[in-house]
Automatic annotation (TrEMBL):
<dbReference type="InterPro" id="IPR018060">
    <property type="entry name" value="HTH_AraC"/>
</dbReference>
<dbReference type="GO" id="GO:0003700">
    <property type="term" value="F:DNA-binding transcription factor activity"/>
</dbReference>
<dbReference type="GO" id="GO:0043565">
    <property type="term" value="F:sequence-specific DNA binding"/>
</dbReference>
<dbReference type="Pfam" id="PF12833">
    <property type="entry name" value="HTH_18"/>
</dbReference>
<dbReference type="InterPro" id="IPR050204">
    <property type="entry name" value="AraC_XylS_family_regulators"/>
</dbReference>
<dbReference type="InterPro" id="IPR020449">
    <property type="entry name" value="Tscrpt_reg_AraC-type_HTH"/>
</dbReference>
<keyword id="KW-0804">Transcription</keyword>
<keyword id="KW-0238">DNA-binding</keyword>
<protein>
    <submittedName>
        <fullName>AraC family transcriptional regulator</fullName>
    </submittedName>
</protein>
<dbReference type="InterPro" id="IPR009057">
    <property type="entry name" value="Homeodomain-like_sf"/>
</dbReference>
<feature type="domain" description="HTH araC/xylS-type">
    <location>
        <begin position="184"/>
        <end position="282"/>
    </location>
</feature>
<dbReference type="InterPro" id="IPR018062">
    <property type="entry name" value="HTH_AraC-typ_CS"/>
</dbReference>
<keyword id="KW-0805">Transcription regulation</keyword>
């Protein structure tokens, strides 16, 4: 597998994932500085690890705001863009199709779309992978193990998902995991569109299932309906906005895709046991918004 390192410096823009030939197993790793950004080519799996500050990712799955020590894994046709905040620092890793089929890319191929926190061990492995970039150009054997260790650690962070594969349809365990990865991508799509109602046909098309089959499989695997999950995602976003922004309750309801303030108020109280205004009162900096 061929490794390419990049350093996207302050205020600059870069592009990852472009390969001269699809047969070349290519892995790009980039250190992305504050106020800079990059575009990932279509057909390339992407992993983003935010070390400090904040970052925004836009992709087929939607828009994601990542805080410090968070990771995001996206599918090959997501074609994401990354934008760093003023104090943000991130590492981006991309692998093309040939790299994912390469024996060295087996851990990356096992990664499923999703996001989560960077624990202490994963954060340390990121730092080690960055230090390995300082090795001479001829010493790829010093770099690849550190990168593989990082990707294997991310795969381990997703291990708690694997028991859900037993509930997925499929004759083989590999097929079950592929179905689970599709469902995980659908959940990520919901999270990336927390500003509106996501309809079942959208999610079904994303997973290449019929609407009926998607709904049935989603409920079977997660024990919940897609509609209920999507509503919880929007309510969680509303709760975050109530605590962290001065927007009014009606503005937040609209920003989270609710038809009116009344429907939002009922859903919020049903989920959290108190009204949005009562929750806002517990956030002193915005108690009078």
């Amino acid at each position: 597998m061929w490794l390419q390192e990049h350093h996207i410096r302050f205020g600059r823009a870069g592009q990852l994932g472009e390969s001269p030939t699809p047969r070349l197993a290519l892995c790009d790793i980039a250190l992305v500085e504050p106020a800079s950004g990059l575009q990932v080519a279509a057909g390339t799996a992407a992993i983003f690890l935010v070390l400090a500050g904040r970052a925004e990712v836009r992709s087929l799955e939607g828009r994601f705001e990542l805080g410090a020590r968070r990771w995001l894994v996206l599918d090959r046709d997501s074609a994401p863009t990354l934008r760093m905040g003023p104090g943000g620092i991130a590492v981006a890793i991309t692998l093309n199709g040939a790299a994912l089929r390469n024996p060295a890319g087996l851990a990356a191929a096992a990664l499923m779309p999703g996001s989560g926190p960077l624990d202490r061990l994963t954060y340390r492995l990121v730092r080690q992978a960055l230090r390995a970039q300082d090795a001479p150009m001829t010493h790829f054997w010093m770099r690849e193990p550190s990168l593989n260790a990082l990707i294997e650690r991310l795969a381990a962070c997703q291990r708690a998902l694997l028991p859900r594969a037993d509930s997925c349809p499929g004759r083989s365990y590999l097929r079950k995991c592929q179905v689970l990865a599709r469902l995980q991508r659908a959940r990520l799509y919901v999270e990336g569109h927390a500003d509106r109602v996501v309809h079942i046909p959208e999610l079904a098309a994303l997973t290449n299932f019929s609407p009926w089959y998607f709904t049935k499989t989603f409920h079977r695997v997660y024990g919940d309906s897609p509609q209920s999950y999507a509503c919880r995602v929007r309510l969680d976003r509303a709760r975050s906005l109530l605590a962290a922004t001065p927007y009014s309750v009606s503005e937040i309801a609209e920003a989270c895709g609710f038809e009116n303030q009344s429907s939002f108020a009922r859903a919020f109280r049903r989920s959290f046991g108190r009204s949005a205004k009562e929750f806002r009162a517990a956030a002193p900096q915005f108690a009078h918004a």
